[in-house]
Request: fold
Amino acid sequence: MIGTLRSARGMAVLALAGALLATVFALRSQRDRPAAADPLPSPPTLEVPVAPVVRQTVPVYLEYLGTTQAIRGVTLEAQVTGYLERYAVRDGEDVRKGQLLYQIDPRAYRAALDQARAQLERDAAAYRYAVANHDRDTRLIRTGDVSLDTLQLAASTATQDAAAVAADRAAIETAQLNLGYTSIRAPFAGRLSLTQVHEGALITVAGTQLNTLVQLDPIYATFNPPDTDLPRIEAALRRGPLPAQVLVGNSATPEYSGTVTFIDNTVNSSTGTITMRATLSNPRHSLLPGQFIRVRLLMAQQSNALLIPQIAVSASQLGQYVYVIGPDNLVRQRFVTLGADYGPLVRVESGLAPGEWVATGSLLRLGPGERVQPVRHSSTAAPRGHPAGALPPPARSASEPRAGSSGARGPRR
Reply:
């Protein structure tokens, strides 16, 4: 009886297992059937904006870091002693040549001038009498009415009185100069700094500094090209004046222009550079001495230069590269050598050919061998206001990397 019960239980277990297996197979067949009938849709093709590699005429230039320097700068000092009566301008004010800056009390020097003029009148009267007396004795000596000694004494007196008149005139000139020195005026047009004295202060001749004045227009831009660039610069100067443009800070547009006016006669052996200077127009006085600037020398015009948008360029440990979209819409990675920047564009020295298209967007989602849908647009057209075959002067960087040059291009980050 026990054997019969065990046999019945085993049969029940086997039946339950069979039912579970049948259910699993049924569910699997139902899951696989729709998949075979309706396959999942493929992901959509990525749309990528692209721009062409174009040829255009661009300016060739050299660029260097530099600083501005005032053409003239003086320390204003007094030449006479006295109390400061008036400070006629404000600190930091732009002044014109000859404008009154400081006024020292002139009363003592005006009195000295009046005294010198009075002395001249007295000595001039004595000189006139001595001349008349000498003329009279000259006539009387012929009749024997005066002696020779008297005549000689009259001549000596006239000569001494003439010398006294000359000394009085020199004293008047000195007094006039001293009186003029009480008015301290701008020796040239420029901008003042902070005053060092105020009304009521005693000004002494022993080097009392009142203020400083610097000329702002024109102004110097001093820079130091490497000696390897010197032959190109000298060749450009032989062709005529060499234009120079200055950019301040991160500006992409030159704000000041001038010409190269000075090349030093010695190369610095420790740095391998030579000092040069350009004279710039600064009519708004917005460029101040001591500012760090970028000086750009326009050397020539280069035709058929290859340009692409800067936003198309990426960088890796192996170098700078772009993604080229071929006719088959496949992405290819291409390493490139870049030149100067021209606003939003950059010149390509090697790695690309005219007519190719480079990706300008979705760069982080691209990879070599991927198929994409290019969306074409031309972002390498010449900026508004310039002909299609020429570009405005470049925005920054040098036309070629130069070892040891302060204007050399670094790796694009």
